[in-house]
Amino acid sequence: MTTELRTLSPAEWDGWYGTLERAFGGLAESAEERALWRDLAEFDRSLGVWDGEACVGTAGACSFRMSVPGGALVPAAGVTMVSVAATHRRRGVLTRMMRRQLDDVRERGEALAVLTASEPAIYGRFGYGVGAFETRAEIDTARVHLAVPDGTDGVRLRYAPLDDETVRQTCEEIYARAVPGRPGMLARQPGWERVPLLDPEMDRGGASALQCVLAEDADGTVLGFVRFRVQPQWGPAGAEGVVVLEDLEVADPRVPRSPGASKDAQAYAALLRFLFGIDLTSALRVRSRPVDDAWQHLVSDVRRCAPRQRDWLHVRLVDVGAALEARTYRTPVDVVFEVQDAFCPWNEGRWRLVGDAKGAVCSRTADPAEVALSVRELGAAYLGGVPLVSLAAAGRVRELREGALAEATVAFGSDVAPWLPHGF
Ligand SMILES: CC(=O)SCCNC(=O)CCNC(=O)[C@H](O)C(C)(C)COP(=O)(O)OP(=O)(O)OC[C@H]1O[C@@H](n2cnc3c(N)ncnc32)[C@H](O)[C@@H]1OP(=O)(O)O
Fold it and tell me: How sure is the predictor about 62, in pLDDT bands with cuts at 50, 70 and 90?
């Protein structure tokens, strides 16, 4: 098979995107969604594989900046739109695209590549580790009650039209304030504010259009927002509607970086209580929330909320030294890592990481290794949500100097669990 791997020209977009759609089952997306992804596409980062005239492979990348522990926004390639035609599968087409893409990412000086996977088994071989999980839940709001913090009654709620530019901007400001406080969140690049508002009728599954409610304090300062839909349902005993939570952010604009601040907690509880109380509904579907999300501590019966976790953000350190220097560390750390990286061999070898809560230096060393692991485990631990010691328990990390593993585990941890608010 002779195939050609190259970047895409704008004129080739439709055929290229058709290959992608077919690999995902062949259902055509709405015109609205197609147009959005085309607008956001970076053609010089969009790879295709052609067999003669036929496009048989696709892989895109977005130039993101991602929040890491300590709050820095680090350039990261967002890998997306990966597919290989079923006629050409398991012949190494994906491997070729990943090779070319990671070389490009390195040349661009991006220390990280990140993605969400259709299937988690695909990307480990290319050095990606699962760095953030998400929680989903189906909450029985007829039986589960909320215990809200003092002050929640002082939060005012109002419906806000999603097509109002001021409302959009307000929500974006709240989102932007939340980004540095949670590793894994993406600073919104121009145009990406349209993604959470994408609302094609064909994807609603019988639910309403997206709705938005703002939470304000007594002065009218907006503290947070929720975007959701309602899916009306009727059973033999009456109404059994479902509220579907799409998006909820709080951040008091007067407090610099405020996860856990009391006004935030009140706004969060008020928005959640609102969702619980919508008439003619008896369930709240939580699509994707951080694993440490506060709702789990407000409910009377978490078992009736059926929470479940799944992999979400996969992280690849493309430049180990630069990536480890870009974040800070919860406690002082001085550890030599022996890194294996068969797919990106420039990362292989020993790295001494010296860091603390203010910053870090990570450089090549000939000193004896103290912790041995592959780049995949480093990617899993990078955002602070997966303890190195837990990877060691699975035999995937080895301690070579007594105490080094515990030291690194504590230092890598993040007070706030990593998470990504939406796919790309
Ligand atoms: C970030 C995103 O966009 S995620 C979306 C990914 N795309 C999809 O899921 C769409 C449907 N699937 C596909 O298009 C294709 O099957 C792909 C892209 C997943 C794989 O493409 P291929 O060209 O077949 O992969 P390739 O031949 O390079 O396989 C490389 C290795 O990965 C393995 N592999 C490939 N796909 C999978 C999979 N779905 N699950 C487990 N292993 C896989 C292969 O067996 C092979 O292993 P080996 O090196 O041990 O022999």
Answer: very high
Residue 327 — φ and ψ, nearest 5°? Answer: -110, 170
Q: Is any ligand 1 atom within 6 A of the Cβ of residue 297? A: no
Rounded to 5 degrees, φ, ψ at 266 are -65, -45
Q: Is 24 in the pocket of ligand 1 (CB under 6 A)?
A: yes
Domain range summary for the chain, segments of one domain joined by +: 4-115, 146-298, 319-412
Residue with tokens 């997966």: 386
Q: With respect to CATH, is domain 4-115 assigned 3.40.630.30?
A: yes
Q: What is the pLDDT of residues 122-134, one digit of tens each?
A: 999 999 999 999 9
Q: What is the pTM of this model?
A: 0.97
Identical fold between 4-115 and 146-298: yes
For the stretch 37-56, pLDDT in tens is 999 999 999 999 999 999 99
Residue closest to 46 by CA, chosen among 93, 8, 102: 8
Fold entry, domain 319-412: Nonspecific Lipid-transfer Protein; Chain A (3.30.1050)
Q: Helix 31-40 crosses helix 13-23 at what angle (to 10 degrees)?
A: 120
What CATH code is assigned to 146-298?
A: 3.40.630.30
Sheet-wide strand order for 73-84? 4-7, 47-51, 54-67, 73-84, 112-115, 308-317, 129-140, 281-289, 241-250, 222-231, 211-216, 156-159
Nearest ligand 1 atom to alpha carbon 82: 3
| Cβ 353 vs Cβ 362: under 8 Å | yes
Closest CA to 299 of 157, 415, 138, 134: 138
Instruction: Please tell me the total number of residues recorded for the chain in this structure.
Output: 424
Looking at ligand 1, which atom is closest to the CA of residue 115? 1
